[in-house]
Amino acid sequence: MREILRLEDVSLVYQAENGEVTALENFSLTALEGEQVAIVGPSGCGKSTLLSIIAGLEPPTHGKVYLEGEQVRGVSEKIGYMLQKDNLLQWRTIRSNVLLGLEIRGMLTAENIAYAEDLLQTYGLWEFADKYPSQLSGGMRQRAALIRTLATQPKLLLLDEAFSALDYQTRLAVTDDVFEILKSVGKTAIIVTHDIPEGISMADRVVVVSGRPGRVKSIHKIELDASGGQLTTPLQRRANPRFTHYFNTIWKELDLNE
Amino acid sequence: MNKKISTLGRKEISAEREAYLAGRKRKKLQVRACQIALLVLFIAAWEVFARLGVIDSFIMSSPSRILRTLANFSGNGLLVHVGITCFETLVGFGLGALIGNAIAFTLWWSPFLARVAAPYLVVLNALPKIALGPVIIVWVGAGMQAIIVMALAISLIVTVLEMLGGFASTDKELIKMAKTFGATRWQTFVKIIYPSNLQVLFGSLKINIGLSLVGVIAGEFLVSRAGLGYLIIYGGQVFQMDLVMTSVLLLGVLAALLYGGVALLEKKVMKFVQR
Ligand SMILES: Nc1ncnc2c1ncn2[C@@H]1O[C@H](COP(=O)(O)OP(=O)(O)O)[C@@H](O)[C@H]1O
Ligand SMILES: [Mg+2]
Questions:
Q1: Is A91 part of the contact surface with chain B (CB cutoff 8 Å)?
Q2: Are strands A36-40 and A188-193 parallel, antiparallel or unpaired?
Q3: CA distance A113 to A152
Q4: In a domain, B8, yes or no
Q5: pLDDT digits (tens, 9 = 90+) for A76-95
Q6: Which of B173, B179, B198 sits opposite A75 (nearest CB)?
């Protein structure tokens, strides 16, 4: 498989009024095409910072980030970034919200619009296209936010605790949805979460990050897919007996950090 | 994929709901009835006391005398004066809003400028702008232009401060979201920041329409050429209290209409934006 993302010894030091904060230190990571990588770690360990660096929103103090072999300098069109909140604009309809990314990038072609509308249809939001965000449930809104991101056809998806604002039931359902979407379009994704089970259930690899400054503490390869090549959803993966084993290993590692 | 189609927009009104709505409507009517009754009572009492000679209608005027003054609008040129005051207010208000928003945008664009300007804005905001009246007249000449400048001066700084505050407190996450799509600063402003602050804009417009009117009346007091402010000053000097009271009454009506106009504009714009 082709390598899509490569981080080489990335460090980031924030300069603040009351001193320096080293958010990340010597962080190296690669992601292959179609792979889902979960990043877990205590809060404040630099997970969001890491995604901001990958997205090109924040230049690293040291180190380099490569996307498909090209060094990242500034916001890249190849990346779709989903934040914790859906950040839908309340004064726009769902359709108009979903097109926002394309609009900002100046990519509002008939073809791209049709693709976005296709996504609305596929993911059950078509009837709500002309509604406003306030008229939708949290799960639907988060799905709309995902479509807004997917509409720009990113090569790499970054999810920053993208489900943590949802209630537990919705969260499990949306996780399944998103997983299915990611797998069906073969998207590479970096999934940041502080929820270990969520990370394990969605990822091919889980990267454990140590407490501040964030460093790669360990990487766990997750093998929970049923044999036969069929899609195994996160819920099904949770039911796998090995799930608990992964959980215990990762949980202990995180615990040792505190 | 879960296919939960919600029952959004279905409307079936239960008996309890109907009773609740009827109750609310009744309360609303009661309040309105009391408001009208109070006004009628006040006018009637004023008229009756004036007729009975309890109050001196030469000094206090009376509703019938005000009516007579109103009816004589072709003779005393009331309409022209109302029109002039209205025009000056609208121009001053419009310029204040326009320039105020432009300055707020500039200060948002350049945080450096904003920091430099901060103490000046605070002082200018606290300064009673009316005090600048004589200066303005000397600078721009004693005429309509001075009055408009006063109306502008009185609403400008408030607009700048309100809008700048609104821009600064726009949801950071929304801005980050736009940035992840590579939004330029201009795009962020147009697509996220300004629309996020339409409520703030209309809040400041609603305050400023009243403030502009204050500026215009103060200006007309000073310039003393035309307008309701001039009529009030003039009427006071020649002891025509009917004219003064009529002008004050018209001023009240004008203020209400102008405010209502802004409120209506807000409704229309909000509706247009929500489409
Ligand atoms: N703009 C900033 N300036 C200074 N410090 C920051 C800034 N952003 C984040 N930090 C600090 O960097 C550390 C990592 O933050 P973050 O990446 O948000 O952690 P996480 O997402 O893992 O909770 C935190 O200690 C935070 O306080
Ligand atoms: Mg975070």
A1: yes
A2: parallel
A3: 10
A4: yes
A5: 889 999 998 999 999 999 99
A6: B179
The interface predicted TM-score of the complex, written ipTM, equals 0.89
Across chain A, mean pLDDT equals 88
**Which one-letter amino acid corresponds to residue A83?**
L
- Residue A100 touches partner B, C-beta closer than 8 Å: yes
Residues with CB under 6 A from ligand 1: A 14, 16, 21, 23, 43-49, 212
Pairing of strands A205-209, A36-40: parallel
**Same domain? B95 vs B165:** yes
Alpha carbons B26 and B13: distance in angstroms, whole number: 18
Contacts of B178 in chain A (CB under 8 A): 100, 104
**Residues of chain A with C-beta less than 8 angstroms from the C-beta of B1:** 123-124, 177, 180
Give the per-residue pLDDT at A228: 64
User: Are B49 and B82 within one domain?
Assistant: no
Q: Which domain holds residue B225?
A: 76-273
User: CB neighbours (10 Å) of residue B261?
Assistant: 12
- Closest CB to B1 among A55, A124, A132: A124
Cα separations (Å) of A10 from A41, A59, B107?
17, 10, 35
| CATH 3.40.50.300-classified regions of chain A | 3-78+155-257
Q: What is the pLDDT of residues A92-143, one digit of tens each?
A: 999 999 999 999 999 999 999 999 999 899 888 999 999 999 999 888 898 8
pLDDT digit string (tens) for B66-85? 998 888 877 878 889 999 99
Per CATH, the number for A3-78+155-257 is 3.40.50.300
pTM: 0.86
CA-nearest residue for atom 23, ligand 1, is A44
